[in-house]
Amino acid sequence: MSGRALRAWAWAAMVLVGLAAPYLVYPVFAMNVLCLALFASAFNLLLGYAGLLSFGHAAFLGSAAYVTGITLRTWGLPTELGVLAGTAVATLLGLVFGALAIRRSGIYFAMITLGFAQLVYFLVVQLPWTGGEDGLQGIPRGKALGVLALDGPITTYYFVYAAFLAGFWLIQRAIHSPFGHVLRAIRENEPRALSLGYDVARYKLLAFVLSAALSGLAGSLKAVVLQFASLSDVHWHRSGEVVLMTLLGGMGTVLGPSVGALLVVTLENYLADVGSWVTVITGAVFVACVLAFRRGIVGEVRALVRRSFIGGKP
Amino acid sequence: MQALFGQLLVGLINGSFYALLSLGLAIIFGLLNVVNFAHGAQYMMGAFAAWMAATYLGVGYFWALLLVPAAMGLVGVAVERLLLRRLYGLDNLYGLLLTFGLTLIAEGLFHQAYGNSGSTYPVPAALRGGVNLGFMYLPLYRAWVVVVSVVVCAASWFVIERTKLGAYLRAGTENPRLLQAFGVNVPLMFTLTYGFGVALAAFAGVMAAPVYQVTPLMGSSVIMVVFAVVVIGGMGSIAGSIFTGIGIGLVEGLTRYLYPEASSVVVFVVMALVLLVRPAGLFGRQR
Fold it and tell me: What confidence score (pLDDT) does residue B172 get?
C-alpha cells in the first residue's frame, strides 16, 4: 500500500467517523473535540512544520471566542458573521504578535508568544465588555446563513463539522504545498533556506498568521458550541493544553493533533470531578511524552506502518 | 509623593525577585541550554517549604532561608539526573516542555492539598517594624529583601565573572565538549548548576513568603513576568539580567502610581517595544 492510498483511506475513515459521531456520542462533546482538534491542527502547522513553538496560542482561540460572543450576543449578528469576525480579530492579532515574535528564534520565540498571551489575558480580565471573571454567558447560537437555525445539537454539529473540514483541508493543503515544503526546509536548516533565496521571515510570518487565523476559527466555533466564552480560553493552561494535544498525537503529522485532542478532551471529561488531579495527570502525561514518546501516537503508528508495509526507514 | 515612593518601593521589591529569578534562569540556560519553566514552581515550593517548616516543625525564618534552598537544590539535582539529562542533544524545546510538565504536576499537587487561598507567613521578629525616612515609611523586612537580593546577585556575578569556578562555568557555556576534553567533569557541573539554579529559586521563594501570600499559583504568575524580563534583557549577561529585573520592577511600580490599570501589562508592552527597537534584547547578543 502506498503512502498516498493510505492517506486516502485515513481521510475516508475520518469523514465517516465525523459524519456518524453525533449519533454515537454526546453531540456537544463531539463538537468540543472538533473545535480543539482544529485548534491543535492549526498549532501543529506552526510547531510540527515550521518548527516554531508558540506558547501563547490561547490568545487567538480566546480572543476569537470573546469577539464571536460579543457580536452574537450584543450585536445580534448572524452566526457566520460572528464566526468571521472572531477569526478576523485572531488573524489581526496573529499578524501583530507574529511580526514581533519572529524577530527572535528558538526558545525566545516561545517566551515572547507566552508574554503576548498574558497581555491578552490581562486585557480580557480588565476590559469592561468581556464580563471579567464571569466571562460571557448565554451566547445565542443564532441562525447560520440566514436559514439554518442552530438550535438543535445535530444541526449545530454539522455546521461545526463543515467548518472543521474546511479548516482541516486548508491546513493539510498548506502542509503538502510548496509553501509547506519551504516551512520544513526552514525548520531543518534555516540558514540554508535563507541562502537558497527564500524570504524566511515572510514564510514564518505567513505560517504564524495562518495558524492564528485557524485557531481563531476554532475559538469562534467553540463559543458558538458551548455558548460561553470564559477566562480559561485565554489562560496559559489552554496554551499548554494545545502543546500537549499536538505532542501526544504526534507533531508533524496531519492526523496527530486531532487524535491528541480527542484523547485530552476525553481525559478531561472523565476527570472533571477530581479537581486539581487533572492538572497533575496532564503534567505527568507531558513528562512521559517528552521522555519516552516524542513521536506521539500517530507518529509511532506511522513509523510502524512504514516498517511493515513499505519497508522504508522509519 | 508618599504614594509614589510607596509604589516605587513595592516595585523595587518585585524587581529584586525578578532579578533573582532571571539570574537563576540565565545561569541554567547558559550552561544546560534548558529554559527552566519550572523555575516559578520551584520558587513557589520554596515559599511553601518555608511555610510548612514553620507550621509543622517550628523551623524559624533564618533556618528556613538556609535549609529550604539546600533541600530544593537536592530536588533539582535529582530532577537533572533522572529527567533532564535524557534530553541533552535534542531540540531545546523538549527541555521547556518537560519542565512545563513538572510545573503542572507541582502546581496541581499543591493546589490539591492547599486549595486556592493563600497562607500567610509571619515576618520574622528580628525584622519587624520599620524606619521613618521623612518622605516615606520603610518597613524593615522590605529593606532586608532588597539588600539581600542585591548581595546575592552581586555575589553570583562575582563568582561567575571573577573566580576559577565561574571561569569553568563560562567555558562550559561557550563549549562544553572542549571543556570536557580539558578534564573537567562537565556532567557533574551540569547537575550542580541546575541544583544551584533551583536553590536560588527556592531562596527567592523563602524571601517572598512574608511579603506575598503563599499560594500554589504564586510561581506561575511571576514566571511569566520573568520570561518577559529575560526577553527584554537577553540572557547573554548576568549583570544585564539583574539590572533588567530591578528596572522592570521599578517601571511596574511607576505605572501602578500613574495608571494602575496598566500595571499588570506594562512589562509585556515594554517587551514589544524592545523587540521593535532592539530585537536581541537590551544586553543580549543575537545568535
Answer: 86
Q: Tens digits of per-residue pLDDT, B49-68? A: 999 999 999 999 999 999 99
Q: Is B189 on the interface with A (CB under 8 A)?
A: no
Cβ neighbours of B100 in A, within 8 Å:
240, 243, 283, 286
Give the span between the Cα atoms of B37 and A110, in whole angstroms: 11
pLDDT digit string, tens, across residues A187-235: 999 999 999 999 999 999 999 999 999 999 999 999 999 999 999 999 9
The string of DSSP letters for B214-255 reads B-TTHHHHHHHHHHHHHHHH-TT-HHHHHHHHHHHHHHHHHH
Cα–Cα distance measured from residue B213 to residue B211, given in angstroms and rounded to the nearest whole number:
7
User: Is residue A298 over pLDDT 50?
Assistant: yes
* Structural domain of A226: 3-235
Is the pLDDT reported for residue B287 higher than 50?
no
Helix axes A58-73, A236-249, angle to 10 degrees: 120
Name all domains of chain B by residue range, CATH numbers in brackets: 2-277 (1.10.3470)
Query: How high is the pLDDT of residue A271?
Result: 85
In a domain, A54, yes or no: yes
For chain A, which residues lie within 8 Å of any Cβ of chain B, measuring from their own Cβ?
Answer: 53, 55, 100-101, 103-104, 106-108, 110-112, 114-116, 118-119, 122-123, 126, 236, 240, 243, 247, 275-287, 289-291, 294
- Quickly state the pLDDT bin for B174 (edges 50, 70, 90): confident
Q: Which residue has the cell 462533546?
A: A29
Q: How far is B121 from chain A (nearest CA, A)?
A: 24
In a domain, A258, yes or no: no
Q: Given CB atoms, is B273 within the 8 Å cutoff of chain A?
A: no
Q: Is A244 domain-assigned?
A: no
- Which residues 6+ apart lie within 8 Å of B13 measured at CB? B142, B145, B146, B211, B249
Give yes or no for residue A3 having a pLDDT over 70.
no
**Is A148 a domain residue?**
yes
Q: What is the pTM of this model?
A: 0.92
pLDDT number for residue B117: 80
- Whether B279 has its CB under 8 Å from any CB of chain A: the answer is yes
Min Cα distance B4 → chain A (Å) is 23
What is the tally of structural domains in chain A? 1
Does B109 contact A276 at a Cβ distance shorter than 8 Å?
Answer: yes
Q: Residue A74, exposed/middle/buried by CB under 10 A (0-12, 13-18, 19+)?
A: exposed
